[in-house]
Amino acid sequence: MGSLVMPRRKTRQIRVGPVMVGSDAPISVQSMTNTQTRDTAATIQQIHALTSAGCEIVRVAVPEMVDALAIREIKDRITIPVIADIHFDFRLALAAAESGANGLRINPGNIGARHKVKQVADCARSHGIPIRIGVNAGSLEKEIAQRLGTTAAAMKESGLANIRILEDLGFDDIKVSLKASDVARTVEAYQLLAAETDVPFHVGVTEAGGLYAGITKSAIGIGLLLSKGLGDTIRVSLTRDPVEEIRTGYEILRALGLRQRGPEIISCPTCGRCRINLFKIAEDVEKALLERDTQIKVAIMGCVVNGPGEAKEADIGIAGADGTGILFKKGKVFKKVAQDRLVDQLLYEIDKMTKNSEDV
Ligand code: SF4
């Protein structure tokens, strides 16, 4: 795997609350709530669910002042840092920072007069919070779009122009995202910008789509970037419960060997040799292990004849036969159990193994 993933790009490092972003800090996984921020109860509840799934930074939309002010109450009741997502209105950025936001997502090029941008930069500096510049291919500055179209080069140019506005004001606590809804432009834009700045990258493919399209595009887009050493914090975009974004994010990092969180479940696709309802069993096991942060590899295999051998590298696994099932560790059978007890027995053994490893 090492040869597949190029060394990480050297960047400046910034801090979002307690989470370091950039250079050799772990690649962080983030998401965005889809509740109305002013509905603090619903927002807090969603952030708790995201936190349990492993979300490390959460972004909330701040369309109006009431949302900026709600951040104070939200912050009191959650444990992960919050980024306030703001378009255009610098007063919302000031209010969000005053309310305790750990970062602002606002494009200085969209704020307007220089004195307004300066107020936002000064305010962020005095609160010790970074600003994320979020370039989106669909909303590039008119002049850049006219000159270069909505190309990767235009996205890079927009990113650089926004970075310069803040750096000219002496503010360099910045990260940047360059998002398009297609993989090719997204990847090319980040590659172009990487050659010109050491600002850390927030990476993702925007408006990626529903579950299948979204996961596929995100896995390929984010995966390609990470494999080139580009990306310091990631966000998968799905038209779904944001908790799914966090799970997908960790699976991408795991697949590239960059970070591990929770058990790894492998399962066979089944074939004509399978005599049990493996889809249901795999679903039950996945559900039961979802929020455990134990690093264990679990195999769910359809048949006793080939299953244990095919999943030799798993720490523990189950395989089904006619009316019965077996448990195996590292490819070796160690217990026969009734089929309807397979899942319970597997979870029992995993608990035992995890407890033992915690006791060491
Ligand atoms: Fe088929 Fe058995 Fe392999 Fe599953 S483990 S794909 S059921 S041979």
UniProtKB/TrEMBL annotation:
A GO molecular-function descriptor: iron ion binding
Record text on cofactor binding: Binds 1 [4Fe-4S] cluster.
IspG C-terminal domain sequence ranges: 264-351
Biological pathway: Isoprenoid biosynthesis; isopentenyl diphosphate biosynthesis via DXP pathway; isopentenyl diphosphate from 1-deoxy-D-xylulose 5-phosphate: step 5/6
NCBIfam families: ispG_gcpE, PRK00366.1
Family: Belongs to the IspG family.
Name this protein carries in UniProt: 4-hydroxy-3-methylbut-2-en-1-yl diphosphate synthase (flavodoxin)
Organism: Desulfotignum phosphitoxidans DSM 13687
